[in-house]
Design goal:
alpha+beta, globular, Glutaredoxin, 146 residues
Amino acid sequence: MKINIIFAMVCLGVLGFFMLSRGGVAPTPPALQEGATDLQAAIVQAKAEGKIVFAVASADWCAPCQSYKRGALVDSNVAQWLDDNAITVSIDVTDTNAPNPDAQALGVSCIPATFVLNQEGQLVSRTTGAMNAGDLLAFLDRAAPR
């Protein structure tokens, strides 16, 4: 038991070091800042506007999440696609002691996680891991063709 705790502390320390060496916590991308406050609000808004729901689950302590936020999620082509076609929502799972209800509803088990839901709130597509802008646009076009 003690070994597991020590191992977990070492892993968290190494993870923290790598995050700090890469610039720390990335700001929330504008495309996600301008989105809905939660999943239900996004679904209601998407239905009213005839758009899809685009949701991203991430955490401050997750290095791939920070890379995703600094890369594909701020790309101008991705931002334009999302503005034209989606209502966005950011799902923060930083606090593992207080599970996010939206993350639970979507079954988030690995982050970063990206979801596309239709106007009825039904899951259309999901993927995990950070993507580059081209891969994200391809994922979006497959999930919700324009």
